[in-house]
Specification:
The complex is a heterodimer of chains A (281) and B (225).
Chain A (H helix, E strand, L loop, with lengths): L4 H20 L19 E11 L2 E11 L4 E5 L6 H8 L7 E8 L2 E2 L2 H5 L2 E4 L11 H11 L5 H9 L17 H13 L5 E5 L7 H16 L3 E6 L11 E6 L2 E5 L7 H19 L1
Parallel strand pairs in A: 3-8, 3-9, 6-7, 7-8
Antiparallel strand pairs in A: 1-2, 1-4, 4-5, 9-10
Helix pairs in contact in A: 4-5
Chain B lengths: L3 H19 L1 H18 L6 H24 L1 H4 L6 H7 L4 H30 L8 H26 L5 H12 L1 H15 L7 H25 L3
The chains are: A alpha/beta (281), B mainly alpha (225).
């Protein structure tokens, strides 16, 4: 199927911008979001034979995968390929129907309770309360994580996401992009060793995507393990070190450690555009 | 992991802040119970003896309907931005999510009951001041039964398709024991001479303990998708 000229131009524009970002991303320091254990304190995850069934439908079929500490992994695939399900299982929001998942930090296996305090997640929804202000939302979650000085922590977390001036405003007055930024601030509050993101670029304009890409770059440089689902190439993927393609609940391609994730990401972007063309024609 | 008490307190404080900022739920529930009490008063002549016979039952029926109305949004609003997942992501005991909401629902419903008790006393020509202490105790135990079971079923119903219908269908039949016990205990206090029935009080305490224990044991599974 032939691409439209606009789609082809957009694809190459995004690719070249992402390539330039990969080469020249400046890593600004930030105390919020940096894993608390310092560099190399990201979590290592091992999925063994993970299956997930929803009624008669198999969302994941025997997925076995090891993600090393400090990797930045992109999960790509169509809608319904199992990306979100895998992220939810990693976040312990969903139990696998079969299989095991093990988390390690610096060679020590973590209990489920210990893992929870080391995970940050940005989902399809914003995971923040519309009826609270931005600051109140972050103070609430800082208290649930038993973080010291929750009020100070919340104020500090709003600066990097550009919401400090809107700290006292109700979230229901925020745009989609602002809510997404607040959701990201919430996920980074406790300086996670594992950051899970489900299509984080959704709802962000190109500037927001660039900002998110820079933020993920900082976290990656600080040793945080990052796993994000995405449909294809965009500005948030500058730091991706590995790309895994899921199809029908199974892993079909894996760039692996040390491999070039671009091949898998480009393939996913091309297939995504082909599907868009097929849908629109 | 954050302590159970601390996490429950944080969630309770958030629920109180949210509700007292908008007062939507409290206002709606107060008006609903007021309407029910007034309409019931039209159905019979509220002389003293008739009021003491029928009043407690009507009062608790009104509280029960108000409770099912008030409990509906308890977990429903956590689905708007999937904030229930945000709570489950936090390093807290899953029971603290239920406990925080139970405590909030208990306080809201008890507040509604105490606001409307004087209205009931006036409309049904009933003397409540001499027995106000034991009466508040009966209200507290009965309300705890309604809100404990109601919060649990609200969590279950919020994940179902016909959630608006499911909660009353689940809750109202199960509340029959609480309704009977609370009504009998209240009627005993409003009788002349007034009497606090230990049998019915023990029944209420047992019901509350059983449901709280069940929520503590199985709460984690109730909150899963």
């Amino acid at each position: 199927m032939r691409w439209s000229g606009v789609a082809r131009n957009n694809f190459f524009a995004i690719w070249s911008r992402a390539e330039r970002s990969r080469v020249s991303t400046a890593h600004a320091s930030s105390s919020i979001g940096v894993p608390s254990g310092g560099p190399g304190s990201g979590l290592r995850i091992q999925f063994t034979g993970i299956e997930k069934r929803y009624g008669m439908r198999m969302a994941l079929r025997g997925v076995s995968l090891e993600i090393s500490a400090g990797e930045c992994v992109a999960l790509v695939g169509h809608n319904g390929s199992g990306k979100t399900t895998l992220l939810k299982i990693a976040a312990q929001l969903s139990r696998p129907s079969r299989g095991k998942i093990v988390f390690n930090e610096r060679g020590i296996e973590l209990s489920p309770e210990e893992v929870k305090s080391r995970i940050g997640m940005v989902g399809h929804h914003t995971l923040v309360y519309d009826e609270l202000t931005a600051e109140e939302n972050l103070i609430f979650f800082a208290k649930l994580f038993s973080l010291p000085d929750p009020e100070g922590r919340a104020r500090q977390a709003l600066e990097p996401v550009g919401l400090a001036r809107r700290a006292g405003d109700m979230v229901r007055t925020f745009s989609r992009g602002m809510r997404q930024r607040l959701g990201i601030a919430r996920a980074l509050l406790a300086s996670p060793g594992l950051l899970l993101l489900d299509e984080p670029a959704a709802g962000l304009d190109p500037e927001g995507q660039q900002w998110l890409g820079d933020t993920l770059g900082n976290l990656h440089a600080a040793g945080c393990t990052i796993v994000m689902s995405t449909h294809g190439r965009n500005e948030t993927q500058a730091s991706v070190t590995r790309a895994i393609r899921l199809e029908g609940g199974k892993i079909t391609h894996d760039s692996g450690l040390g491999g070039d994730p671009n091949d898998v990401l480009v393939m996913a972007a091309v297939r995504g555009m082909q599907e868009e063309d097929e849908t629109s024609s | 992991m954050t302590g159970l008490g601390h996490a429950t307190g944080v969630i309770l404080a958030k629920e109180l802040r949210t509700e007292f900022r908008s007062r939507e739920l409290l206002g709606t529930t107060i008006v609903f119970v007021l309407i029910v009490i007034v309409l019931f008063s039209f159905t019979f002549d509220p002389t003293s003896s008739e009021s003491r016979r029928f009043g407690p039952g009507l009062l608790w029926l009104a509280f029960l309907f108000a409770g099912s109305l008030m409990l509906q949004p308890s977990f429903l609003r956590e689905h708007t931005n999937d904030t229930l997942s945000a709570l489950r992501l936090a390093p807290i005991d899953p029971f603290s999510i239920l406990a925080g909401k139970m405590a909030a629902n208990f306080l809201f419903l008890l507040l509604v009951e105490l606001i409307l008790l004087p209205v009931f006393a006036v409309m049904y020509n009933t003397a409540i001041l001499p027995v106000i202490g034991p009466l508040v105790l009966v209200f507290a135990l009965g309300t705890l039964g309604i809100t404990t079971a109601g919060t649990v079923f609200s969590a279950v119903a919020a994940q179902a398709r016909l959630r608006e219908l499911l909660l009353p269908l689940l809750l109202l039949p199960l509340m029959a024991p609480v309704l009977i016990a609370s009504t009998e205990a209240t009627a005993g206090l409003l009788r002349d001479p007034s009497e606090l029935s230990l049998v019915w009080m023990t029944f209420l305490v047992t019901f509350d303990v059983v449901f709280l224990t069940a929520a503590w044991l199985f709460g984690e599974y109730l909150l899963e998708e």
